[in-house]
Fold this protein.
Amino acid sequence: MTSDRKEKSLRIKRIVALSAAVIGVAAVTTVVVPGGVALAHGSMTYPQSRTYSCYLDGQAGGGGGDLNPTNPACVAAVGIGGKQPLWDWFGNLISQAGGRHRDIISDGHLCGPTTKYDAYNLARSDWPSTSLQAGATITMKYNAWAPHPGTWDQYVTKDGFDVTQPLKWSDLESTPFNSVTNPALGNGEYSWTATLPNKSGRHVIYSIWQRSDSPEAFYSCSDVVFSGGGGGGDTVKPSAPGTPVATASATSVALSWAAATDNVGVSGYQVYREAGATDVLVASSSGTSATVTGLTGGTAYQFYVVARDAAGNVSSPSSAVSVTTLPGSSPGTCSVAYTTPSVWSGGFTANVVVKNTGSAAVNPWALAWDVPSGQSISSAWSAEVAVASGKATAKGVSWNASIPAGGSVTFGFNGASSGTPALPSSFTLNGATCSGA
């Protein structure tokens, strides 16, 4: 890239960032990178993430122009990684995480898992912090710079955590104290209520937002100081819930269990699927039942339940129940919505939504279509797309290999076109002809 093009690129980034500051950091927009691929962006704004706190600190010190943080930790981070991570405080992400957080993020890099944000892993006790009351119910807020569906998990550091040492996975409590899927979105911000754990002193709240329509995931560390917790609060954990009873279909399992008991009261339950080294939270419930969806037909699963109280105390896990889903079958019918949201001279971006309108899961799935004359396909996301003899075939990847009955998957790709890109004339899903959506 020439120096002129680099300078132009930097000016564009600065204009975008300054515009966002003028209209409010909670404003919703769509971030577009070359090729027309829309990305999700966001970060915790209450309790404030490190990048957001340092961005606000830089605003205050910059006098309305440049970002000039005054907080010592923020100053140190800028000295190492520059100011661009502050302008991009909402972009702390891994694009192909796919739920593999502990596998792909090493100890000491939880707060900034990529080179760009590595400075925000500095082990310091002077990061800007948010004061919280232990055991209180608060409204968590997460900026929706570009909104997408998904699940947010909030972990807190264990008692005795040393903030002057690099944050490790083992420093976090084993289960999140709060989880939410597709929270309410308004005024450019996600918000939901959460009961804080019974902690005292300085801690880190670690948030993971895993998109459900993409393997992309976002990470943030919020430095907090709890008051009112410790020995004076409720430290008694609930009893273990009863062993779940399971009823399976091809793509879901309905679970019910005997209630746990607690000296104050049980506030909710979380259902986990056993998955080797790292079990997966698959459902949360305020009662004694839950349904786990999006499963694969003819597959064995094991689930267990934990209870928690309002102070954040977590029970021992229930005994696990083993269950095998019913066999899936080929689709009865399907529909496809194919759009080209971005078109430019010589190229385009296509988004494809495949819906299974049959009565059984499609697993695995393969969507095929004839590539219109004058077109070619380059890069794809959320599916593996191959072209042979003028026919394209898209197949699901590990995290979306099954389409449940009544469910859908979404993928996209970039392509080249000699003119206005024509739409494919027809699609087949595992050999069955699909209708238009």
